[in-house]
Write a structure and sequence with these properties.
Elements (H helix, E strand, L loop, with lengths): L1 H20 L8 E5 L2 E4 H9 L10 H24 L6 H27 L2 H11 L6 E10 L2 H12 L4 H8 L10 E6 L5 H8 L11 E3 L2 E12 L5 H27 L14
Antiparallel strand pairs: 1-2, 3-4, 3-6, 5-6
């Protein structure tokens, strides 16, 4: 089972990180004892968090036996290595230094992100995105054809009382044709500029009197409704905002370090670039 292949390593990493953090939950029972050494529930949960993303949604009850066995194995291997004083070997020390740098790097980035993404800043960013005049969105239909003459003929039929949705089903080459040309509701910035400009200039119930050309062909557009766009709640959008702010903060942190550093780059063979 492929799941078993990566669990021991990830469990060992989780133990290291958990030990470094020193964080122990109040409700943190002992889930195993290996030669007198306790394994806590918090270590098990930390190991779970280090699993690949596709495995994290699996209920803990389902993966508990495999995860616990991996933690037990990690304790056994570590104890054996200590008994043989493998920590005194140069290879171990080199590897430990590499891992220490990686952990320190991640800790530093996480600290930079935590300082930049506070609850107050999240709320401020949300307010900034949704402040000012309320955005409007419209509901529209369109008929897409290949030539200007076809579009002119369709406008003529509409002016004479033809049903827009039926004409769209009959004549539109766009994917929405089968649905009567319906595009649903959309706000500014979601359509190509010529289409958007023409659509938002129409009053409710009106259709364009001239064909609207875009890179897709020639459109005839009808606006069916308009409404004030309701912004998402803070709770519904906070995760997305947090992720975006965290990425930006991490990138800025690295960029600031680069700007203040003297960096020399060489070719793969160690020679200086031409």
């Amino acid at each position: 089972m492929r799941f078993r292949a990566f669990v021991p390593f990830l469990a060992a990493v989780a133990i290291s990180v958990s030990t470094l953090s020193g964080a122990v939950a109040e409700d943190d029972p002992v889930v195993a004892v290996v030669n007198g050494t306790k394994i806590l529930k918090s270590e098990l949960m930390a190991a779970r968090e280090n699993l690949p993303e596709e495995y994290r949604p699996i209920p803990i009850e389902q993966i508990y036996p495999v995860l616990l066995s991996s933690l037990v194995d990690s304790k056994l291997v570590a104890a054996d290595a200590k008994s043989r004083k493998l920590y005194e070997e140069d290879g171990y020390k080199e590897r430990l230094a590499q891992i220490a740098d990686q952990v320190l790097e991640r800790y530093a980035v996480r600290q930079a992100v935590e300082e930049a993404v506070t609850d107050e800043k999240l709320r401020a960013e949300y307010e900034s995105r949704h402040s000012g005049a309320a955005a409007m969105e419209i509901s529209a239909r369109h008929i897409l054809v290949k030539t200007n003459d076809e579009a002119v003929e369709i406008i003529k039929q509409l002016d004479e009382g033809a049903d827009f949705a039926e004409l769209a089903k009959e004549k539109s080459t766009g994917p929405s044709g089968a649905n009567g040309g319906s595009l649903g509701y959309f706000a500014k910035g979601q359509m190509v500029p010529p289409f958007e400009e023409a659509a938002f200039a129409l009053e409710k119930g009106m259709h364009t009197k001239e064909p609207v050309q875009t890179q897709f062909g020639f459109h005839v557009i009808k606006v069916e409704d308009s409404r004030e766009k309701t912004p998402p709640t803070f709770e519904a959008s906070v995760d997305e905002i947090r992720n975006e702010m965290a990425q930006a903060a991490a990138a800025q942190y690295i960029e600031d370090l680069r700007s203040a550093a003297k960096i020399e780059r060489f070719n793969l063979d160690g020679s200086k670039p031409n």
